[in-house]
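Per-residue structure
===
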Amino acid sequence: MVNLSRKVFSLGEIRYTWVLLLSIIICIVTFFCDEHLSPDDQIWLAVSYYASFILATIWSVANYAEHIQMNSLYRKQNNIGAYVSQLALNKEDKLELQNYLEDFAADLEQQGRSKEDAAKEAINQFKVKEFLSMSKHTQPFELHGHHYLIGLALLMLFSALLLFILDQAIAPGTLILFIMQVVLAVYGVCFITLFMLYRIVDKLIYRKLKQYFS
């Protein structure tokens, strides 16, 4: 439960925050102008609303892409111990493999390679020969849980509720407070929807990768 709460409220994992904030600000300003000024020319209002929506869409795609990471087993490695420890082997096989790779790297060092280059080359040679068979159940990408979107949605909805209470207690009917309530509530609901959409995309990617690597 504690671990889940930490994931939900890890808002620092949000990427490209400035794009999201710009989308929210444009939406609030456009909404205010629409309600307060009521201009005859509605074209620029439509453009502003679309700009806010497009920025939010760009943010959702960029944020998702930023959380996709290469599986650690597929990354470039120059530490034999760290690489072997990630493989699905028992303790004895890991020790045997590590000794083999370290001996191979030592031979490369005697040939003039640096320690780092020798370790990297030994790992790469092993990958070419044995990696696919030993890691056939692994996938090349690690996908994020995206729990922070739930935390962000709760923050938005709670902020909208506080503004509603403030509006009713101090100055009922204040336009700017009403607009902020609506925008925050809408974005909060959208974050919940985005969380579900992210999970659907995750499952589709996992399914495709499973079919490809099985």
Remarks:
- The mean pLDDT is 81.
- Residues 175-213 form the longest helix (39 residues).
- The first strand starts at residue 69 and ends at 70.
